[in-house]
Write a structure and sequence with these properties.
Layout lengths: L15 E4 L2 E6 L5 E6 L2 E7 L3 H13 L4 H8 L3 H21 L9 H8 L8 H15 L9 E2 L5 E2 L10 E6 L5 H11 L1 H9 L4 H11 L13 H7 L8 H12 L4 H15 L6 E10 L8 E4 L4 E13 L4 E8 L4 H11 L9 E4 L6 H9 L4 E4 L5 H6 L7 E5 L2 E14 L2 E12 L4 E8 L7 H9 L8 H8 L10 E3 L4 E3 L1 H26 L15 H25 L3 E3 L10 E3 L2 H24 L9 H9 L3 E5 L3 E6 L5 H15 L10 E6 L7 H7 L1
Parallel strand pairs: 8-12, 12-13, 23-24
Antiparallel strand pairs: 1-2, 2-3, 3-4, 5-6, 7-22, 8-10, 9-10, 10-11, 13-17, 14-15, 15-16, 16-17, 18-21, 19-20, 22-23
Helix pairs in contact: 1-3, 2-3, 6-7, 8-19, 17-18
């Protein structure tokens, strides 16, 4: 958790900018130290008299995106020294940076000189690194003569680490079908330009994430089961490295803390490029369960109908199910505030606001009034439906008909008025009748100045009913939706709980109501006792019952008054022996879900392209996944990367497979180095090798 003592939104005059939002403040006098900030937020402080700590500080600051020349000027060291630090870590690792020698042998310098004195290069570490680079350059396979790539964020990617920099002939790969996702993302989203621009060399972890999402690989640990060379070829790298290296890529990307900027950039681009719909937006919350030992806030599990530890992923989808936006919130989340914030989030980017569709969780007259005052059109379910009253409505009232996803419905429209204080709002009240199941329900809508028919409103409601609500269900079945790489927990800012005294008062009131109910029944059955002269007896049973009732009613009123005066929630962070709530850091989850959302949108679009060539609509999604899991071959030349997929057996499926590959190839996708990406269908390319070599 960020220490509030070091948070300062205003940049002091003695701070020096290092680029990419980083700034440094060097304090002299006493023991000099340097403090690093990112966008005004404290990151790290180091004692400059500690040589080892200073070396590590320099390396980590450069990895975060600092300009080497600026950092050298501030710390009073040479640019070559920083370069030597980086090369030492790259060659010998962090332990080599600390101990100056390779950690594979004894760390004792005298012992190392005895063992390897003749083998060690003469001169200082700079000369050793120069000799190492010379040998490494001579042994390195020939690379393309292309310049380093600079992404939109200014991050430089060396030539040898650029995607598909290796030139090779046809090689087999079990993961060739994943290449379809890469072509679409590169051509439609500028995928590689974006991730390389934001993350530099760490863009590779996003290629691995794409493979995981496409093949439903549940975690980084499960990558041990794949063929690393074959998968690496399809992702544009020589091979997928081992687990420690993958985690290093991930943490290097997560430490940049740019997930929020990346998501906003991509979501805005989708809207501008027309990659998602702007008519209906469906907003819903999805549970992200937490099964660890720490104490976290509870979300709500709709299927189990019970609260459980976790977070809520609030996702906005368009009418076709494409992901428009998402936001992970602590605990149950706040659906209503998220909906209100959507308008401001994309303000100025939309020709007009989309119609928001949400479920019963957002049902509230005050919320409806707030939506109307902010000019947000919406459609939702009617929460408090009197089904008996609906069943008694005459069938003749349901005059309009429509067919939706193979089912027939009748509906009609009325008005419903909500009164709050002196204000009243009028909403459209839509009554639906499912003729197949003979069930009836109702929905509400406010469309303002938009000319929206009752049929469109009914269809929007039906998209939130039962089997039609399938985005999360399909995502969970096909992709690792719940995976969260790199769990990090910190103290939550929300240390409040539901006031336990309120629950205690409710228990007292419940007992009083039960006692009163029993006394009312006894009183109704008890007759008046009269004296001989006809006057009521002073100590009759009826009077005793009435006295007890009066006492309980007075107690009930008093407890109810005390309950109203209690705060709904109380802050318990100051209590003795209190175990504070933890908050899960969402940076890693945002980065993984960024890939999941784009792969899901790519799947939606490619299935739409596949439909005209395959007439079995109930099988087209399974056909698409079968194509993306095809084996094949890949060849990388100086100008193109070509993938050949194994043909499917059935002629009509092969025809659809070929047409989809032609559609993707026609997009003209190019990676930042200029290579074209092509995919086709065919048999083993063993006979084509010499021809392709000649043409490459």
């Amino acid at each position: 958790m960020v220490q509030k003592d070091f948070v300062n939104s205003e940049k002091p005059s003695d701070r020096v900018s290092l680029g990419n939002g980083l700034s440094i403040e060097v304090t002299s006098g006493g023991r000099p130290h340097a403090t690093l900030y990112r966008r005004g937020v404290f990151v790290k402080r180091v004692d400059l008299t500690d040589k080892t700590a200073r070396c590590i500080f320099v390396v980590e600051t450069v990895e975060l995106g600092a300009k080497k020349s600026r950092l050298a000027g501030v710390l009073g060291i040479s640019r070559q020294t920083i370069h030597n630090y980086l090369e030492t870590q790259r060659v010998f690792g962090r332990e080599g940076l600390v101990f100056s020698y390779s950690p594979k042998v004894s760390r004792n310098r005298g012992k190392q000189r005895q063992l390897h004195g003749k083998e060690l290069a003469k001169g200082g570490k700079a000369k050793q690194l120069a000799e190492f680079r010379k040998k490494e350059s001579a042994a390195r396979p020939k690379q393309l003569s292309i310049p380093p790539v600079l992404g939109s964020g200014g991050k430089e990617v060396p030539v040898e680490e650029q995607p598909f920099s290796e030139v090779h002939d046809w090689q087999a790969s079990r993961y060739a079908g994943t290449f379809l996702y890469l072509i679409y993302l590169v051509s439609s989203y500028g995928w590689l330009d974006r991730v390389m621009g934001y993350f530099g060399r760490s863009y590779k972890i996003f290629m691995v994430f794409m493979l995981m999402v496409a093949r439903n690989i549940g975690s980084i640990e499960q990558l041990k089961n794949i063929r690393k060379r074959e998968a690496g070829l399809i992702l544009g790298m020589k091979r997928i490295p081992s687990k420690p290296k993958l985690w290093q890529w991930f943490y290097r990307a997560a430490r940049l803390k740019v997930a929020e900027d990346l998501l906003r950039d991509v979501f805005l681009y989708q809207l501008r490029a027309g990659l998602v719909g702007l008519w209906l937006w469906f907003v819903d919350g999805h549970l992200l369960p937490y099964t660890g030992k720490e104490k976290v806030h509870h979300a709500y599990n709709t299927q189990r109908r019970m609260p459980m530890p976790g977070r809520t992923n609030l996702v906005t989808c368009d009418e076709s199910g494409r992901v428009v936006d998402f936001e992970i919130q602590e605990g149950k989340g706040d659906l209503r505030q998220y909906i209100l914030a959507l308008k401001n989030k994309f303000k100025g980017e939309l020709p007009e606001n989309a119609i928001i569709v949400f479920d019963r969780e957002g049902y509230d007259s005050a919320f409806f009034s707030e939506l109307i005052s902010n000019d947000v059109a919406f459609v939702t379910w009617d929460k408090h439906v009197d089904h008996d009253k609906l069943a008694r409505l005459s069938d003749d009232l349901f005059t309009e008909e429509l067919e939706f996803k193979g089912k027939k419905y009748n509906y009609f429209e009325q008005e419903k008025v909500f009164v709050k204080d002196t204000e009243s709002i009028v909403l459209r009240h839509l009554h639906l009748w499912n003729r197949s199941s003979n069930r009836r329900t109702s929905g509400l809508a406010w469309t303002g100045a938009k000319e929206i028919s009752a049929e469109d409103c009914v269809c929007a409601i039906l998209n939130r009913w039962g089997a039609s609500e399938n985005t999360f269900k399909h995502l969970k079945d096909r992709h690792p939706l719940h995976y969260h790489p790199g769990f990090k927990l910190e103290d939550s800012e929300k240390q409040d709980i539901a006031n336990p005294e309120i629950k205690e008062k409710e228990g007292i009131l419940s007992r009083i109501r039960g006692s009163l109910s029993r006394l009312y029944k006894k009183l109704a059955k008890t007759k008046d006792s009269l004296n001989k002269d006809g006057s009521p007896r002073k100590n009759s049973i009826r009077k005793q019952l009435q006295a007890r009732i009066d006492g309980l009613e007075a107690e009930q009123d008093q407890v109810a008054t005390e309950k109203k005066q209690l705060p709904v929630r109380v802050d318990v962070s100051g209590l003795c022996d209190y175990k504070s709530f933890k908050q899960i850091d969402n940076e890693g989850k945002d980065l993984f879900d960024f890939v999941t959302g784009l792969v899901w949108n790519a799947r939606k679009q490619m299935v739409d392209w596949l439909r005209p060539y395959f007439d079995q609509d109930n099988e087209v999604v399974d056909l698409f996944y079968a194509i993306t899991e095809c084996h094949g071959w890949i060849m990388s030349t100086r100008t193109e990367v070509r993938v050949l997929l194994e043909p499917m057996e059935q002629p009509r499926r092969r025809l659809a497979q070929e047409q989809l590959c032609r559609t993707l190839t026609a997009l003209g996708a190019r990676i930042p180095s200029g290579k074209r990406l092509l995919v086709e269908v065919g048999d083993s390319p063993s006979g084509k090798v010499s021809k392709n070599k000649a043409g490459g």
